[in-house]
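PROTOCOL LOG
Step 1. Enter all chains and additional molecules of the complex.
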Amino acid sequence: MAASGGAAGKSYRQVGVILVTLVAAPALMAPLLSGGDMGNVVGAPWADASLQHPLGLDNLGRDMANRLMWSARTSLCVSLVATLLAFVVGTSLGALVAVRGWWVEKVADRVVDLLMALPPLIFALVVLSIAGTSLATLVVTVAIMSATRFFRVSRTLAAGVVVQPYFEVAIARKERLIWLIFHEVLPNIVKPLLAQSGLQLCSALLLGASLGFLGFGLAPPVTDLGSVVRENAPALGFGLWAPLFPAITIALFISGINLLIDAVSGTRSRS
Amino acid sequence: MLSRVLGPGVDQLSENILSVSGLTVERMASNPQSREPGTRLLDGVSLSLRAGEVLGIVGGSGAGKSTLGRALLGYARSGVRISGGVVTYRGRDLLQIPEHELGAIRGGDIAYIAQNPAGSFNPGLTIGRQIVEVLRRHRALDSSSAKAETAKLLASLELPAPLKFMKRYVHQVSGGQAQRALIAMALAGGPSLLVLDEPTTALDPATRARVVALITSVIRLHGVAAIYISHDLEVVNAIADRIIRLEKGVLMSEQDVAALMKEHAMPRPSRLQARVEQAPEALLEVTDIRTGFATAQEVLRGVSLTLRAGAIVGLVGQSGGGKSTLARIICGLHPDYEGHVSLSGQRLDPSIKRRTAEQARRVQMVYQSAEMAINPQHTVEKIIGRVVHRHFGLDRKAVTAQTIALLQKVGLDSSFLGRTAREMSGGQLQRIGIARALAARPELIVLDEVTSALDVQTARGILRLLRTLSEREGVAYLFISHDMSAVTELCDEVAVLDNGAVVAVVEPRSVLGCAALQEPRSVATVA
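Step 2. Run joint prediction.
Step 3. Record the structure below.
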């Protein structure tokens, strides 16, 4: 992307693509690859890896590779949808506030300040213990936390656009709010926001996994990466690998996304 | 003895500090996959510069002057790439060395002074802090000595109260001051080569003369080599040791300056006397406008102005004198004023928000900086078509037809429909700005310094266009400018703004003799 240092930027991008594909592709094809096996007990708990079960078995004797695919599927799904939702809501609200102050600005500011002051995990725990864990509440909770970040970034970027003469031209033409936001402001701020969504995707994934680990994940048979870590955590006491597999999956995906963002925004190619 | 004194100096002089050969820069094809070479912006440019020498580069708009200036620092705008050639600075090819080493050279050894000083500073940091950062990065000074050095630099550029000035942000200083601060920042890195890209184009004549004198003395004092890019031959002639001319990306041979001057000289335009008598009806009446009345800095102190339908009235005055503010007041974009504005006898609300759509349509504005007045993400079709659609509500096909007709009116054609701001030159952008204003079929167009960012030839093209359009469309202009020759060429009468009030409405020809403009104010207030 950047003028020079293209080689380095390119290799970062390639590594990023490989890492993300490594996690996302099996997750996407879980029903195919697992042959419909989501949680059948096939052997002794934490049995060693074999040709049939390349990553061994989990705490109940289920195939670890299958569990990973299915749980990654849930985790990625939740974080993707939540990030998308947060992007749409946070960005348009941020642009709206920058374009028209009104009371929206005051209310949105206070609410966002309040939400950002709360530790995400504690906020999510409280909401989920009151509302109960369902796919919808999980997605919405994660989305709300993420939307505050989009709001801040979008508002700051949009504030730079609304002082431009071309925005004034649109004002002088008496354009409506919708046009101002979606035609004059958003096209000019969407690139940095896309980089931001990569970061938010990572934090959404981490938040979701943390909730799963703490037992606030989705109810079985659905599983997510955090739950798989929790289920297999006791294995650490026996010096077994099992809980590391989901953790590594999370780490690979997040590193991949970060490399991609860097390659796209060109930060790695500068000194 | 003498030779011993002169010896090293002579050696240094004879050494080429910078040499460029076969430099080629091209615009990348819009389809990155295509193998076709893009348009060449620079085609095999070769030049060399000795230490301490000042080289002037002149040429019209779109000749590739700025592209050359940037390429000398090994930089190309996005969408443009340096496709060939060698830029050797002190024996190293800038096009080959790694980015981080280039970063140490840029702003340190080679400093670039851009056309638009306001855009060269970070708006979120004070000017002082940005200069201090250059000193710390390139000269490794500690914080307190960097601050002291910054104050010294600013003082040497005749900026008032340097310690106070350092605490200002770029929006708090005038264009002339920002330009001088930018020069200070360039000098901070202790450069041995300065690349100046139209550093005085956006300044008014009085400020410009002072900045040019300052640049000359700075170059001589610091003994730096400089490349001075401008379309203003007189300025280049005053500063440069040698002048070369760039035309459509190709370097013309070094030319005789006198011949060049002759070629560029502007013929005195004939007056448009006849129009003054026509159209007695007052289209625009501005009565006793005051701004900043709540604060000590009262910019406009009771401005009154009348404009008849179809008339072309010039508005001249010092930079920072409130000309642009008046333009924005008329357009309803600066509602914070006293007094009133009426259109055809109808009083207009101070804010555009409460003016009717019809009122908004009848008064249009064209901006000084066409590039910033055009949304970089929009195509020409959208920029102009939107205005047509908004005011006349035609269907898509009719809008496109109308847009093409408007493009033709301003001397462009339908091939521009799909272009964005990046793909057009300054003159073309300003034509789009004018077409956008015309699209609303206005009765008054406020032209705010529309030619000041353009070179002489492009500016003259725009002026000719404006005159033709006013004759054909019968639209009135309020032509704000500090370019006297443009004002004399275009306007029927000229209002002179001084010290926040209109001091005279005169014949264009007598403007030049007007005392209010001749007398430059003190440094502190002008800039």
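Step 4. Note key features.
DSSP finds 20 helices and 20 strands in chain B.
Residues 274-526 of chain B form a domain with the Rossmann fold fold (CATH 3.40.50.300).
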